[in-house]
Each structure stands twice: as C-alpha cells, then as structure tokens.
Design a protein that fits this description.
Glutaredoxin, 12 helices, about 400 residues, 3-stranded antiparallel beta sheet
C-alpha cells in the first residue's frame, strides 16, 4: 500500500499544530510525532468516515499545487478505508475527537458527518483598468461555475474584448489540462495549476475555473464565478460591442439579485454537489431533501414570472440555468439527485429551454462535454469512466416553446 501511495499521490503540506494546542478542524500533515494528527490519501477524492480517534482522508494530489510529502516513516497504526471518493490511509497520531476536514479542488469534506462544503475562492480582485486585450479568461465548457462567466461574456458583447481559453473536459490526476487544439496562449502551460503558480509561486490552494487573468500584471484577478459575472457585466460595460442583453445587474435590482443568488446557491447550485459527494446516508438525504424543496419552490415562482427576479433576465437566471442544464444530463443519475427529473418540474423545464434557446447562450452549451467531464473525471463516483449515451436532451431543449 505504501509503495502504491508513493507512486500515485502528490500531497500538499499544510501547517502543523503544536502538541500543546487544542485541535481545530483542518488538514494537518507532518512527520511521525510532529503533529497532533495527519491526513494523507490516494488520488481520486476524499476518504471515508473514520473510526473514533482516527483521522482518515487527506489532501488530494491531482487537485493541489504544492510540495510533495514523503510517506516513508510517516505512518503508525495504519488503517485503509475505501469509499466513494477513493482510498484513505488513516494514522492514529494524537488526540481523539478531532474532526477532520479534507480539502480538494472539489471542496471540503467533513469526514465525521460526511458533509460536502465548497470553500471560498482565493483571488477576489477587480480589474485595474478596463482596456481591450488586457484580460484573458480560462474556462471550461463543462463546468457550471465557468459556464456562468462564458454566458455573461457572450450576452454582454465582450467576446472581442476578453479572450478565452477552454480547458479539456477530461480532468485526470493532474487536474484541469489544456487542449492540444486550444493551448495556453500566455505562458504555454500544460496544466491549469501552472497558471496559478505563475500568479503565485507559493500557491497551495484549489485549482478551479473560471480564472480571470491580467496579462499586463501577470496575475489572477479573480476566480470567483459570481464576482467575475459582475465584473463582466458592470466593469467591462464600456467595452461591450452589440450586447445581446442589457445589464444583468441593473442598479435597481442588485440587492434583489444578490439575495436570489444566495437563495439559489446552497440548496441548488451547491446542493447537487452536497448530494453527490456526501459520504454518509444522512448527509446525502438532507442535501437531496433540501434540493428538491428548493426546486419545487422555484418551479412555483417561475409559474408566475419568466425570470427569477421578475420580467428581466439577470445574473440570478444565469446562475440557476447552468445548474438546471446539467440536472437531467448528469446530476439526476451521477449524483443520485433522482427524486424527480428536471423535466418533471414544468416551469423550471420551460425556463431552462427558454434560456438554452437564447442566441447568446446556446453556443456556450456543450452537452457532450458536460457528460464527458462528470462521468470520466470522477472515477471514484463512476469507476468505469463509461460516459452514458443518454439522455438525449437536445431535441427537447430545442423544441419550440
């Protein structure tokens, strides 16, 4: 087992707590005797719920940028567990009752409760100046968070002002990789993590899309999709060329839009991941219940009005749409969100079809890439990596309203 781990995994060293300190949630890696507790895991995802006094799980190699931690001589009283997120090797190295929290590009997982959480993005800046050609977007057709920014860029007439590079939908052990037919035009990186390291050579956080890059300052401006949407809509408005929609965050609606974004995020946008990545039955069932209560609520809202905030399309509609588009395609089966299909919610389905058929949105919707990414890139959820042929949604999405 130790040899296999050595060959397969690259780990990130995070701070080690002194023996005198009280343990707190977090991931700590250290040599034997040098930490209250340590966590390591193989490639492929989170570990599983540990036994009492065991810290099981760890930092996932393919998701992180950072130094390798040698495994020789680290473990004592090792225990191996296999779960839906991969294989975890647990070491009993210190105080009991510690609640291990594992972090990866997927998010955070509480290994005691089996609850998935998504941490905040690390780069939260705004553009220094608004000039065409200075900024570049790294994105993925498959990713719902990146898809938000691609739609906003399209609807607001910024295709000519902000260049874009799309990463490959096959996300393997090294995380997001660049396509051979769409290489990194700035630094020639092979992996998206190299872009993060280009911005900060000491970076050891999650590697995600979207990434808004500043060519002049050679750094990441922002990698939080909600903020990048707002930056595109408002900050870059002077560069808009024949926008297909007016502002998606008009001043009179910003307060309401932000509230709706908050309401949609936890039960729906992140709720599908909380269900799909849960490692306990209780966590899974709680996430699914909350998800379908929220879907029923918004199905009722959209029975009375065309968009989330009323008569006008806003950022909230884009945020809802990118999750709904993937629901029957991926989340219903792959993430076990299967109490109902999206198509069983008539008003949500009509809303999804209306959004999909918008001339500025449809070119950003790559259904095959979405299925390929989820089913191929998460082998601990789908070990065979077989990508299903169905459902065939294009004819229904494109049918006249």
């Amino acid at each position: 087992m130790k040899k296999a781990l050595m060959a397969a995994a690259a780990f990130v060293a995070l701070p080690v707590m002194a023996q005198a300190q009280t343990p707190s949630p977090g991931v700590y890696i250290g040599a034997e005797g040098g930490a209250n507790w340590l966590l390591n895991t193989t490639i492929g995802g989170f570990g599983v719920t540990p036994q009492t006094g065991w810290a099981a799980g760890g930092v996932i190699g393919y998701d992180f940028v950072g130094p390798r931690v040698e495994l020789e001589g680290v473990y004592r009283q090792n225990q191996t567990n296999t779960g839906p997120f991969g294989t975890a090797v647990a070491s009993q190295v210190g105080q009991l009752g510690v609640q291990p929290i594992v972090e990866s590009d997927l998010g955070l997982l509480d290994l005691v409760l089996g609850i998935f959480q998504r941490p905040a993005a690390r780069f939260r800046g705004r553009p220094a100046e608004i000039v065409p050609g200075r900024y570049h977007l790294y994105a993925a057709w498959a990713c719902p968070w990146a898809h938000r920014t691609l739609i906003t860029r399209s609807l607001r007439g910024l295709v000519g002002a902000i260049s874009v590079t799309m990463v490959d939908p096959h996300m393997g052990d090294d995380g997001w990789v660049f396509r051979t037919d769409d290489p990194d035009p700035i630094g020639g990186a092979q992996l998206l993590r190299d872009v993060y390291l280009r911005a900060d050579r000491g970076y050891t956080g999650r590697v995600t899309v979207p990434v808004l890059w500043d060519r002049r300052d050679a750094t990441i401006v922002n990698n939080e999709s909600r903020e990048v949407m707002r930056i595109f809509d408002l900050d870059f408005a002077p560069l808009a060329d024949r926008p297909l929609e007016p502002s998606l965050a008009p001043p009179e609606l910003i307060g309401r839009i932000d509230r709706m974004l908050d309401e949609i995020y936890s039960p729906i946008n992140n709720g599908v991941y909380r269900a799909g990545f849960a490692t306990s039955q209780a966590a899974y069932e709680a996430a699914v219940r909350e998800l379908f209560v929220a879907l029923a609520h918004w199905d009722g809202v959209l029975a009375e009005q065309p968009f989330v905030c009323g008569a006008q399309m806003t950022e909230a509609d884009i945020a809802l749409f990118t999750t709904l588009l993937r629901f029957d395609l991926v989340y219903h089966g792959h993430f076990k969100c299967n109490l109902k299909r999206l198509r069983d919610h008539p008003n949500l389905w009509r809303f999804t079809r209306r959004m999909y058929q918008h001339p500025g949105i449809r070119p950003t919707c790559k259904l095959d890439e979405i299925k390929t990414h989820y089913y191929w890139s998460q082998p601990t959820v789908n070990p065979t990596r077989i990508v299903p042929t169905g459902p065939m949604l294009e004819p229904e999405l494109s049918a006249p309203l």
